[in-house]
């Protein structure tokens, strides 16, 4: 088996926890960029259905591959929800709490779909990373939170997290494409809000737009210099 093949995610974590109830994979996209929302997706894999081949960490895939996988994931019997926290919420709360808020919103949305399918409440949440998020909205809807399992590099280990990573990334990329049409001077469609040289040069010429995260250091520094 090649190293690349060995690194592909599988369903061992889902199988280990499925007796507790539905196992949900959760991942985010967009913590690092200077502009746009942070998005999160929660995904439940229907155990009786397959997943599209090539499913892995969204960062390892080309944009066309992510879009193909997104279409196939949404076509199947699996359940998912994608949610976000806005740039304004990031500025007000901080990026980590805002990321947790987006995860909470995605999980609350998926909870409704699970209930509609009469699948019961989640038994385990597989969260990409090494942190346990605050999930106040989900806790308010459940008698108690399910098992929360942080998984470092989870999008390369768990199929559910990998699916969530693709759904979060493709959703956010579309939003940045829309921002590009609204604010064409910044090149959002090309860099997706990340801190590239092109982005920095556009900020120096035009200043920030409403989509920029004013609490992030490059934007805050620029605003301070213009005071």
In terms of topology, how is this protein built?
Blueprint: H1 3-6, H2 12-17, E1 23-29, E2 38-44, H3 63-75, E3 79-85, H4 87-93, H5 95-116, E4 124-128, H6 136-141, E5 147-151, H7 159-182, H8 188-191, H9 197-206, H10 217-226
Radius of gyration: 18 Å
Please provide the ordered H/E string of secondary-structure elements: HHEEHEHHEHEHHHH
Helix proportion: 40-55%
* Strand content range: 5-15%
Strand order of the largest sheet: 3-2-1-4-5
The CATH architecture classification is 2-Layer Sandwich
Give me the count of strands: 5
N- and C-termini, Cα separation = 59 Å
Looking at the structure, the CATH topology is: Nucleotidyltransferase, domain 5
Main sheet record:
5 strands, mixed
Describe the structure.
The chain has 227 residues and is an alpha/beta fold. It has a single domain (3-226), classed as Ribonuclease H-like superfamily/Ribonuclease H (Nucleotidyltransferase, domain 5, 2-Layer Sandwich), CATH 3.30.420.10. The chain contains ten helices and five strands. Helix 3 (63-75) packs across helix 7 and helix 4 (87-93) crosses helix 5 (95-116). It is globular and about 55 Å long.
């Amino acid at each position: 088996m090649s190293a690349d093949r060995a690194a592909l995610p599988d369903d061992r974590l889902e199988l280990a926890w499925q007796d507790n109830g539905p196992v949900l994979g959760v991942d985010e996209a967009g913590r690092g960029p200077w502009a746009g929302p942070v998005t999160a997706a929660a995904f439940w894999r229907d155990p009786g259905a397959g997943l599209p081949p090539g499913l892995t960490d969204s960062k390892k895939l080309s944009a066309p591959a992510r879009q193909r996988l997104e279409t196939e994931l949404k076509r199947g019997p699996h359940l998912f929800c994608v949610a976000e926290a806005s740039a304004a919420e990031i500025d007000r709360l901080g990026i980590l709490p805002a990321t947790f808020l987006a995860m909470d919103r995605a999980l609350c949305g998926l909870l409704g779909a699970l209930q509609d399918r009469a699948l019961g409440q989640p038994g385990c949440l597989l969260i990409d990373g090494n942190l346990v998020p605050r999930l106040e909205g989900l806790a308010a809807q459940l008698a108690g939170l399910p098992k929360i399992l942080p998984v470092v590099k989870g999008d390369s280990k768990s199929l559910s997290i990998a699916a969530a990573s693709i759904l979060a990334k493709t959703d956010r990329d579309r939003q940045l494409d829309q921002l590009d049409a609204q604010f064409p001077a910044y090149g959002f469609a090309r860099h997706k809000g990340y801190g590239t040289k092109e982005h920095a040069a556009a900020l120096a010429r035009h200043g920030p737009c409403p989509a920029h995260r004013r609490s992030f250091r490059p934007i805050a520094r620029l605003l301070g210099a213009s005071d």
